[in-house]
Amino acid sequence: MLFYRAAVDLSRATLNYFAGLLRRRRKAVRSAWRLLNPGRQALLVLAHLRKGETFAELGAGFGVSATTAWRYVEEAVPLLSGRSPKLGLVLRKAGRDGLRYPVLDGTPIRTDRVRADRPYFSVKHRSHGVNVQVIASPEEAQLWTSGALPGGVHDLTAARAWGIPREPGRAGILTLADKAYQGAEGPIATPYKGRGKPDS
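RE: above sequence
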């Protein structure tokens, strides 16, 4: 395998914040010695999330096995997702900032095909993957993303699972969406025909 220097377009503050989360978790669980310190683990995970490098590539670059790279990512991702902003808070802040018409759309994220993962096959997109709901500004700046559901889940079902239809009303704003969300309860206007979708 060949090696080269690479960059991740994230700030030093992001790395330090993430490393702090990992450091506190290791202390809380009284973790034994690790091959990588919290800063290097944070960088490995951020490189994986930002650039999609495989565990084998990450392992080679950081001097650990592919299995260890996978373990580091599996340990760290829940720490980040647990600190993601809640939908209600995001929409209320959007309203205070003058954003009255955020856009809701489902984004398919492709995954490898596994025989046992039939629910992850999306007929609409003709591929295996997961369904992630995204709320963005009309200028397509992401405000909030949901967790992942199997790709075969319809957008309206996914929106209901994450409690999306009721939250815009509580925040006093109207959310725009495409025809996939027709029948949603609450202030969701369909169909939406704008300059683009949040995932475009």
